[in-house]
Design goal:
This protein has helices at about 10-30, 55-65, 85-95, 105-115, 130-145, 160-170, 190-195, 205-210, 230-235, 240-245, 270, 280-300, and strands spanning about 40-45, 70-75, 100, 120, 150-155, 175-180, 200, 215, 255. It has two domains: about 5-130 and about 280-300, Rossmann fold (3-Layer(aba) Sandwich), CATH 3.40.50; about 130-275, Aspartate/ornithine carbamoyltransferase (Rossmann fold), CATH 3.40.50.1370. A five-stranded parallel β-sheet has the order 7-6-5-8-9. Strands 2-1-3-4 form a four-stranded parallel β-sheet, with helices on both faces. The protein is built from twelve helices and nine strands. The relative contact order is 0.16. With about 300 residues, it is of the alpha/beta class. The longest helix has 21 residues, at about 280-300. The protein binds phosphoric acid mono(formamide)ester and norvaline. Phosphoric acid mono(formamide)ester (CP) binds near residues 53, 124, 257 and 258.
């Protein structure tokens, strides 16, 4: 049994399979062709933080695969009344086939997985957002072909998205240029462990030079709202604008996992401009996660 708790829980070979499978699943979806490998399977989705894309993509995706879903939040389950995570895992995993969790500390999802009888998927933690990077790389491949040897510029917070990009670059053979304000760096251990595939820049414009993809995220992630005012000051120069896009390769793409704050981490003319692929990126959450769910439950098919 495999869990998907962080990006490097799968190998480069498994990603090659998943990207091909996601493309096929997407093609079938666009042609209104039925694809029901998960009939009678149930996905439990547990949200301890808000979501639009993750909820819709997993829920719609699971129904499209022929399965069904159960949606739980902290507010409407015993999770919010301090039932131990281990007990919740034991109970929930006796009734469903797959669990997706969005929560705070990575240690929480690890504890859940350790006591789960079924595969567990990380739908975002403070530390990682692997399903998003899965979709982002699938989107890059659709637009530009293989990401191997390419350069991704990360501009902004050293958050769950940035950490996951670091893991992906080391695993799949591309480079990440990271520029974060001082005090908001990526995980130090992870930066060291992936040293061969990353480079750090104090100036975000420098980080964008020659990049094939420029990407960013909100200045304040969920769970850090109390730091919002302080962060607005610290991040003022980390706004992806036309000048940064001009420093990147002429055919560079722009991505943002969304939700976005125009005028903060990205200017409207970039996110709504011709190099932006954010809507494909959001849609691809569903196709990529359908391939992931199918793989975790059935292994490689065909
Ligand atoms: N990108 C992303 O995970 O969006 P949601 O928070 O809406 O799920
Ligand atoms: N880094 C953001 C991503 C939201 C999808 C957060 O954790 O809130």
């Amino acid at each position: 049994m495999k869990h998907y708790l962080q990006f490097n829980d799968l190998s480069a070979d498994e990603y090659t399979y998943l990207f091909e499978r996601a493309a096929l699943i997407k093609k079938k979806f666009k042609a209104y062709e039925k694809h029901h490998p998960l009939v009678d399977r149930t996905l439990a989705m547990i949200f301890e933080k808000a979501s639009t894309r993750t909820r819709v993509s997993f829920e719609a995706g699971m129904y499209q695969l022929g399965g069904s879903v159960v949606h739980l939040t902290t507010g409407d389950s015993q999770l919010g009344r301090a039932e131990p995570i281990e007990d919740s895992a034991k109970v929930i995993s006796r009734m469903v086939d797959l669990v997706m969790i969005r929560t705070y500390e990575q240690t929480k999802i690890e504890s859940f997985a350790a006591h789960s009888r079924v595969p567990v998927i990380n739908g975002l933690t403070n530390e990682f957002h692997p399903c998003q990077i899965l979709a982002d790389i699938f989107t890059f491949i659709e637009h530009r072909g293989s990401i191997q040897g390419k350069t991704v510029a990360w501009v902004g917070d050293g958050n769950n998205m940035a950490n996951t990009w670091l893991q992906a670059a080391a695993l799949l053979g591309f480079k990440v240029h990271v520029s974060t304000p001082r005090g908001y760096e990526v995980d130090e251990k992870l930066a060291g462990a992936t040293a061969g595939s990353n480079q750090f820049f104090s100036d975000p414009l420098e980080a964008c030079k020659g990049a094939d993809l420029v990407t960013t995220d909100v200045w304040t992630s969920m769970g850090y709202e109390a730091e919002n005012e302080e962060r607005k000051k610290a991040f003022a120069d980390w706004c992806v604008d036309a000048e940064m896009m001009a420093a990147a390769k002429p055919d560079a793409l722009f991505m943002h996992c969304l939700p976005a704050h125009r005028g903060e981490e990205v200017e409207a003319d970039v996110i709504d401009g011709p190099q932006s692929v954010v809507w494909d990126e959001a849609e691809n959450r569903m196709h990529a996660q359908k391939a992931l769910m199918e793989y975790l439950l059935l292994g490689k098919v065909a």
